[in-house]
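Input record (one chain):
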Amino acid sequence: MTSSMTFLSPAFPKPDHSHPNTEKLEVCYEKSVVAFIDALGFTSQVKQGNLEAINQIINLLNSAIPRSNLLQATTLGLFRAQNHPEIFPRYLQVSDSLILSQRLEQPEHKDIDGFQDVVTRIIQCSLVFLNHGFLLRGGLEIGDVWHTKTNIVGPAFIDAYELESKEAIFPRVILGKEATKYWIDIASGTMNRMVIEYQGHWTVNTFTPSLFFAPNESPKKLSSWYSRLQSKMEQQVNNTHLEPKQREKWHWLLGFLKQAAALENCKLD
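The corresponding structure, as predicted from the sequence alone:
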């Protein structure tokens, strides 16, 4: 005689149907500015088992945006910031990648510029990483995207990812076709060279002084800022403990710095 038995593996417990069904999600696109950014050298650190560097990169990614949002909140007003989280760029951190997006236009917050906010976050993060000896690379595009706390879907996200993975190559964040058009036609007149053209690509200008200095700042102070950045990069270029490919990336960024400084009438050696 056979008998029926129910066998439950400890790895597969009996389902608990007492909980309500998971909320059904529905993708709804918004026209947004989207950036996909990677920390350079992370893969090699993982392969080498360098937990110190891995932890440093992960913690920088984890802290850079919240810290920048707090700075913006003090400018906009803490009450408004707490009650209107949509005024900040949305972000996801996945391994060594940082994904940013912001609605291009917010009719209910006319003083919020999605393009400028995302570009500003990229500049802030890039300098934080640079000061810790790491570099970022990415792509930025404008288009349709659906971005929640846990997921992102849309053609603009794919375009930004492909810009980073296939075209950027060097430690830079380059603009895609739609973002370039927006910059040239609309944003360039008000954003004080936060994007510049270099080696065939419109590129986020990591070294935009208008974010850190007043319009009437003395040329000497500005020149000193650029010189300190130059010195930091030259140390990395000449660091024989770095792999040649890493030193090459720092060398490229040094050339970009000199171009950015020249646009501000600061000539570096």
